[in-house]
Amino acid sequence: MPLTPLVYWAQRHEDIYLRVELTDAQDIDVHVHENFLQFKAQGHGAKGQNEYEFSLEFLSPVKPEVIHRSTQRQVSITVKKGQHGWWERLTLKERKPVFLAPDFDRWLDESDAEMEIREKEEKKNRLKASRHKEEEGFISLKTAFLFVYNLVQFLGFSWIFVNMTVRLFIFGQDSLYDTFHTISDVMFFCQILAAVEVLNAAFGVVHSGVIPSLIQVVGRNFVLFIIFGSLEEMHNRPVVFFVFYLWSAIEIVRYPFYMLGCFNTEWKTLTWLRYTIWIPLYPLGVLAEAVAVIQSIPIFDETKLFSIPLPKALGTSISFSFVLYIYLVLMFLGLLINFRHLYKQRKRRFRTKKRKAN
Q1: Catalyses which reaction (predicted)?
Q2: What is the sign of the dihedral through the CA atoms of 24, 27, 32 and 35?
Q3: Of 74, 83, 84, 280, which is most buried with the most CB atoms under 10 A?
Q4: Residue in 349, 358, 220 with CA at minimum distance from that of residue 272
């Protein structure tokens, strides 16, 4: 006759828990079919080290998936009920097997089990509400940060655009020659702050490509700090006016669009301008930057500023103008990359709007 281990049981509305008194159990075989469970294992039980087995015919069908875990002291088995509910007993026969007993460590009455379910649901709801509140707090904090950033940039570039426009009407051509002295401080601030856009894209604060943002920010700051900022001879050139004016003309449309986007709000005219005005202005801006770089090359050659010294045996140095020639090539490659990126954005945006309209 096969040896039978001691088995303790308890239940919940969804699960049956069995605890088999076998220490150091090995070769455990547990499987379920409909409402029958069969167990077989090698271990140390009430009759010493032997092979033990038992079978149970449950009161109702159960799911075939069985979870079992063996420790040095016992084998724990979890069986899922076929239907959610409370059983009046474990086995189909009213008379329970002699090896079966209640597991008082896990035993609960039906009312206690229902209370346990309610407590779990309340805990789950509290946790869900807490996470939702944290997400809302993060979203509101992120929205506030993005709105303030875009607002500051909009105010900065608006001041530049309006100031330059008013000076152009009042002073005419003379305003073209002192743009750097009157505007550069605010432009320095705005362009340094624009580095935040690269970080936002890199860390996923906004859903935007890192490369297009990096190309624009690095390109503009190169022109602003290296070409204009480091060469006093460039300060009075009219090209400064055109570069600053084209930059600000693009940004006074772009940043208000982002501000409204923080609150899922759209103004159709502004949306159209955001995805259209760059078509003429962006290439013109790059062209103005290229003119500024070309005008600076003779100055760098003459002043030897940023020249790269070579060993004394060669007796010369590499002029920074060589770097500028390479930069001109990269500038137009960047133009193609960003133009393609902006065109895809525009196509995607208006194609989506057409679908919604249909």
Answers
A1: a very-long-chain (3R)-3-hydroxyacyl-CoA = a very-long-chain (2E)-enoyl-CoA + H2O; (3R)-hydroxyhexadecanoyl-CoA = (2E)-hexadecenoyl-CoA + H2O
A2: negative
A3: 74
A4: 349
How far apart are alpha carbons 233 and 284 in whole angstroms? 23
One-letter amino acid at 264 equals N
Read off the pTM: 0.61
32 backbone dihedrals φ, ψ, rounded to 5°? -130, 140
Give the Cα separation of 43 and 47 in Å (integer).
10
**Three-state DSSP class for 89?**
coil
pLDDT digits (tens, 9 = 90+) for 10-37: 998 889 999 999 998 999 999 998 889 9
52 is catalytic: no
Q: What pLDDT digit, counting tens, does each position of 41-84 carry?
A: 999 988 888 999 999 999 999 999 899 999 888 999 999 999 98
Q: Of 142, 130, 258, whose CA–CA distance to 203 is shortest? A: 142
DSSP secondary structure code for residue 3 in this structure: B
- CA-nearest of 247, 146, 158, 153 to 201 is 146
Decide if 257 contacts 146 (C-beta within 8 A): no
Contact between residue 173 and residue 202 where contact means Cβ atoms under 8 Å apart: no
Q: Is 282 a catalytic residue?
A: yes
Residue 172, strand partner residues: none
C-alpha to C-alpha distances, 357 to 209, 264, 265, 271, 345, nearest whole angstrom: 28, 18, 17, 16, 18
Instruction: Tell me whether residue 180 is exposed, middle or buried, using C-beta atoms within 10 angstroms of its C-beta: 0 to 12, 13 to 18, 19 or more.
Output: buried
Q: How far apart are CA 175 and CA 184, in angstroms?
A: 14
Nearest to 64 by CA among 103, 36, 93: 36
Annotated catalytic residue: which of 251, 275, 289, 327? 289
Question: Measured between alpha carbons, how far is 56 from 39 in angstroms, rounded to an integer?
Answer: 9
Handedness of CA 270, 276, 280, 286 (dihedral sign): positive
